[in-house]
Amino acid sequence: MTELEKMLAGEDFDTLDKSIHALRTKTFYALQKFNSTPPMEGAALFKDIVGECKGMCAVMPPFHCEFGKTITIGDGVFINMGVTMLDNAPITLGNNILIGPNTQFYTPSHPLHYKPRRDFETTCLPITVEDDVWIGGNVVICQGVTIGARSVVAAGSVVTKDVPEDTLVGGSPAKVIKPLNQADNE
């Protein structure tokens, strides 16, 4: 198993591995080019950065990620400026998602004990955002979280646990504010 495969599987991995470094470097240069391109003109550049973009997606620069190839994006996704995706594990975005500015996705974490942190010990868990979700600005989504379909995450929230479908959550840490009755809007 390669170090990249270990990282994606959530196992201990060598962060200084040559293949991981090469992918990180390739993504760095691709992001510099994308982020210096006017908004709405860099779609082809962005599709070369991420693993898969399944349809129309609009991404406003600047956009930041570490690897890119671990990110999958559905159709009809809008990512506003300043979004950061630490994609050491897969980040999967469904269809028709709105992501506010300066939202952060964090798949890696480090131990609470200081000694393993000295060696940059890292564990990584995926993040999934299901269809028709709206994520407000300045939201932090932590590792291992799934945000259920048709949910809304209020601006400034820190999401540390799964969000049920059809729910409004907010706060730090994010808590359920109320269920959303989608039938009211149909």
Structure description:
- By secondary structure, this protein is an alpha/beta fold.
- The protein has a single domain (3-185), classed as UDP N-Acetylglucosamine Acyltransferase, domain 1, CATH 2.160.10.10.
- It has 4 helices and 19 strands.
- The strands form 4 sheets. It has a 7-stranded mixed β-sheet, with no helix packed on it.
- Helix 2 packs antiparallel against helix 3.
- The relative contact order is 0.11.
- The model has no long low-confidence stretch (mean pLDDT 93).
- Residues 4-55 form the Maltose/galactoside acetyltransferase domain.
Report the strand count: 19
Largest beta-sheet characterization: 7 strands, mixed
Strand order, sheet with most strands: 2-5-8-13-16-18-19
Low-confidence stretches: none
What is the highest CATH level, the class?
Mainly Beta
CATH architecture call = 3 Solenoid
CATH T-level topology: UDP N-Acetylglucosamine Acyltransferase, domain 1
State the domain count: 1
Overall geometric form = globular
Name the beta content range.
Answer: 25-35%
Mean pLDDT: 93
Give the helix/strand class: alpha/beta
CATH H-tier superfamily: Hexapeptide repeat proteins
First CA to last CA: what distance? 49 Å
Secondary structure tally, helices? 4
Short description:
The chain is 19% helix and 28% strand.
Supply database-style keywords.
186 residues; alpha/beta; UDP N-Acetylglucosamine Acyltransferase, domain 1; 7-stranded mixed sheet; globular; nodulation; Hexapep; Hexapep_transf_CS; acyltransferase
What's the structural blueprint in terms of helices and strands?
Elements: H1 3-8, H2 18-35, H3 43-49, E1 52-53, E2 57-59, E3 63-65, E4 71-73, E5 77-79, E6 83-86, E7 91-93, E8 98-99, E9 104-106, E10 108-109, H4 114-118, E11 123-124, E12 127-129, E13 134-135, E14 140-141, E15 146-147, E16 152-153, E17 158-159, E18 167-170, E19 175-179
Parallel strand pairs: 1-4, 2-5, 3-6, 4-7, 5-8, 6-9, 7-12, 8-13, 9-14, 12-15, 13-16, 14-17, 16-18
Antiparallel strand pairs: 10-11, 18-19
Helix pairs in contact: 2-3
